[in-house]
Amino acid sequence: MQSEVLLHWLRQLTEPDTEKVKQATKQLQSLSLTNDFLLQLFHILRSEQNDQIRILASVLLRRKLSKSSETITKDVHEALKHLLLEQIQIEANQRIRKSLFELIGTIAKQDLQHEVVEKKKKGKKPNKTETTGWKEYLHLCGTLVQSTDLKQLELGMHLFGTLATYCGRFVLEHWPHTFNLITSMLKTRPSPTVCEQALIILVNLVKEIHQKQYMQTIIDLVPIANEAIQYLFVNLTAENTTNLLDFYEALLDCEVPNVIGTHLQSIISTCLQIALRNDSSVLESVRYNALSILAEICRQKKKTLLKHQEILPPIIQALLQIISSAAVDPNTIEDDDDDEPVVVAGANHVLEAMSYHLSPEKFVPLVISQVEPMLKSSVANERKAAYYVLSGIIDGCCDYINNNYLEPYMTALKLGLRDVNSDVSSAALLALGETCAVLEGEISKYSVEILPILMEIMVQPDNMQNHNLKVIRIYYAVEELIGVLNDEHKGVIPEVLRVLFHVHASTTNTKIRELVLAVYPAIAIMMKDKFAPYLEPVITQISPNLSQKPNTETLPVFCTSLHTLASLCRAVGTDHCKAILLQALEFSLNLYTEIDEPEFRSAIFALGGAASRVLKNEFSAAHVSKIMGYIFESLRSLDWIEDATATENRKLEWVDDEEIDGASNGINDEPEGKAEKDDDDDDDDDDDERMTFENAHVEEKAAATEALGDLVENCIVSAWPYRKDIIEYIKNMLEFPNVLCSQNAVTAAGNLLISIHKMVSQTQLPNEKQLIQDESDRLIADLIPNLCTIINTTASRSLAQIALDTIKSILEEFKVDMLKHMALFEKIAHSVQKVLAYKTKCQQESDEDNEENGGGEGRDQDGRDDAEYDAMLITTGGDLLPVLTSIACAGNVQFFPGYLASVIPKLQKRLRHQASVSDRSFVIGVLAETVQNMNEALLAPYLQSLFTMFHQYLIDDDDEVRTNSCFGMGVLCALANQHLIGQYETILTRLSHVLVKETHPRMIDNICSCLCRMIVVSPQHVPLEQVLPVLFQHLPLREDFAEAISVFTCLNLLYEQHFTQIESYLPKCIEMAASIIDDERVLPEAVPVIREFLRSIYAKHSVAFVQVMQTLNEPLRVIVTKHLQTN
Question: Which SMART domains does the protein's record reference (predicted)?
Answer without folding.
Answer: IBN_N (SM00913)
